[in-house]
Amino acid sequence: MEAKAATRLYVEAGLGAGAMLALAPAQAHQLRAVLRLAPGDAVALFNGRDGEWRARIASLTRDRATVAVEAPLRAQEEAGDLWLLFAPVKRARLELIVEKATELGVSALCPVITERTNIDRLNPERLGAIAREAAEQSERLSVPELRAPLPLMRLVTDWPAERRLILCDETGAAPPAAAALEALPPGPRAVLIGPEGGFAETELDALRKLPFVCPVGLGPRVLRCDTAAIAALAMAQAVGGDWSAARLRRPAGQTATRG
Amino acid sequence: MEAKAATRLYVEAGLGAGAMLALAPAQAHQLRAVLRLAPGDAVALFNGRDGEWRARIASLTRDRATVAVEAPLRAQEEAGDLWLLFAPVKRARLELIVEKATELGVSALCPVITERTNIDRLNPERLGAIAREAAEQSERLSVPELRAPLPLMRLVTDWPAERRLILCDETGAAPPAAAALEALPPGPRAVLIGPEGGFAETELDALRKLPFVCPVGLGPRVLRCDTAAIAALAMAQAVGGDWSAARLRRPAGQTATRG
Fold this sequence. Notes:
Two copies of one chain form a homodimer. By secondary structure, the first copy, chain A, is α/β, with parallel strands linked by helices. Helices cover 28% and strands 23% of the residues of chain A. Chain A contains seven helices and twelve strands. Chain A has helices spanning 25-34, 91-103, 124-138, 152-157, 177-182, 201-208, 225-238, and strands spanning 8-10, 20-22, 42-46, 52-60, 65-74, 82-86, 108-113, 145-146, 150-151, 164-168, 189-193, 213-216. In chain A, strands 6, 7, 8, 9, 10, 11 and 12 form a seven-stranded parallel beta sheet that branches. A five-stranded mixed beta sheet of chain A has the order 1-3-4-5-2. In chain A, strand 6 (82-86), helix 2 (91-103) and strand 7 form a beta-alpha-beta unit. In chain A, helix 2 runs parallel beside helix 3 and helix 2 (91-103) packs parallel to helix 7. The two termini of chain A are 13 Å apart. At the A-B interface, helix 2, helix 5 and helix 7 of A face helix 2, helix 5 and helix 7 of B.
């Protein structure tokens, strides 16, 4: 399909014309077995620092691939600054939150332990891979940072005062999200989503007293935590976030539609 | 957990004090094996017409349950009027779209066949069950109607002129969603999401010429179709939709938090 974008791959190494890079075994597998590419085919590379570069597959076996970096495609852009604080939930919904948050431009994924959080282990390798893949698909030039889990109340005690914390308040007491977000001053922001059982009353009371907290309502229905995360992040980007920015255009012949 | 809402079940039958209803086998299984309820336990019932009613389990075996309807909990509310037009995609993402659209208050789910739609079969029973379950979880009093698939161009040829069609335009040419939605007059609306490969240029050209079509942009990144559907529905409800309505309160002791 002509409209298909070049395959984008995240790499750790520095990017520059003439560099020869070894890809990860999973990437070699993806190129060969999933995408059926071959030596000579073009891919696009990014590393979160050096922009996006066109590269060509130099060698490709079952689990090894090398690529030759050729020319720059896009300059590195200023990454957005939006954190997502989320209570770990069961695997499928957690992975969905990481994938969708990445697509929606989150810069830091911050797991928080709340009173009713009943998941105590994360798989950072797996979640990191999901974030990388979502960044590749979404044309981002960076991968969100996955932080170590912290107790919610410790995190907000040590909070950078200028960063607004958008609290998704499921009690029905908060003003609707659109109005609340419009009233926020410019500056860095974070979205906070509670666990499956909701926040405890004591947590909500403490959060509402903090000067940087902005409670928002997400409508009259009860949303699952993954739905709430996606809806709140979309709202945060649409009202005061980066949705007013023009889409970064890719070179001709590489449109930006993905499934 | 005290804060847990009563189990809500969708039924087809009419609801009124004293009615004795047989539940579906899957519901009997859910009550007994998943939720470990027993005769005498309370549940809440709704059917999309008669509001929400408290009922009590009268008998419960492996695949049969009868419930006695006792008293009304909530009056039937006016259902929202928001359609989602979506191109069928692979199963996992399709099911996610149906679940999340239901949580976000969609009244009609309308599969549309576009030029680049490459899925030609849906499983209406499975999708209907997902919508019913999401309605139960989200405290809705209705289940969205799942329509039969129609070619997109036939659907818009026969379109009710007063219903605005919010076109999620991934080309970067549309105004940002918040501004575009704020400019819409009040009235019924629909959201249209394209297939994995995006709309064809001819489709976009034809859609943009229709007087009821409102193209919106969903930010600078490339969103998967399920992400785009959830983000656009959240925006449509938040700006001019029902998110400004107060949450319907349930009786004391039944708060509305779910995972």
